[in-house]
Amino acid sequence: MKTLEIGVLLGLTRTGRKGVVVADWVLEHAAGREADYVLIDLAEHKLPHLEEPVPPMAGRYSDPRTLD
To answer: Is 54 helix (H, G, I), strand (E, B) or coil?
Structure first.
């Protein structure tokens, strides 16, 4: 039987983010349980809306990938 895999999502991408401490705490306390816990860090993925020079809430996108 395949082991259940559960993702722990680290959704903060800004410099100086504090969520890493929380994600590490979750992974530490989940270790040894009957599932594999995997960190999913959004900062490690290319997300064009987070690479825009102007904050996304302004709605002024310069990268065509953001509009897709």
So the answer is: coil
